[in-house]
TrEMBL record:
PANTHER family: PHOSPHATE REGULON TRANSCRIPTIONAL REGULATORY PROTEIN PHOB, REGULATOR OF RPOS. The modification 4-aspartylphosphate is found at D53. This is DNA-binding response OmpR family regulator. Gene3D superfamilies: 3.40.50.2300, 6.10.250.690, Winged helix-like DNA-binding domain superfamily/Winged helix DNA-binding domain.
Amino acid sequence: MEQRVLVVEDEEDIAFPLVRTLEREGYEVSWVDSGEKALADVAGTPTDVMILDLGLPDMDGLEVCKKAREAGFGGAIMIVTARAGELDRVVGLDTGADDYLSKPFGLAELQARVRALLRRTHGVPREEMNGDPEGLHIDVAARRVFAGETEVPLTGKEFDVLNILVANRDKVVSRGRLMADVWDENWYGSTKTLDVTIGRLRQKLDTAGVIEKVVAVRGVGFRLEMPSA
């Protein structure tokens, strides 16, 4: 099956070369010019990579990224933008993006970034895993997570949450500690952010066939544990 890429860009002179280049690479490519269309598209069609411009006419691309992740979109998101500041890059990655490419950029670089994202995110489907669950391996220095030989694609926040849970296997980690350590002790946003992150993390670990489960302890926090026999 062809891997599908969605280009979210409102400027035709930028979108068309991207679409043609990606199609020549053998991808199935679709193009939309607004945030609402992007969210509707990924909600209805399996998508491997979303190439997302931040300067959209109807909503900021960061909001599109956030809403897509909250709705359960598990594909890779690469932000493409003229905003080159470090703060914008960090905010984008924290919102759920996997990569960040500043304009202007070369098409060869974009192709290489897309290939890298697909290597990270295109794991082996569960039905092809011969029914064998995989052990969880985490490389803290490289900030990479593996299920057997398959890398599990995680955003920065997902990795940080999992890293804390792994360090406290079979112990309950409070919601307060996770919010303080992963976000900031002065975070004033909704703690629903943690629940959304946990939900995405569970989905990715389950899809990769990881044995261990992230279990919620009502009113307290979360625990990473092996399932009972």
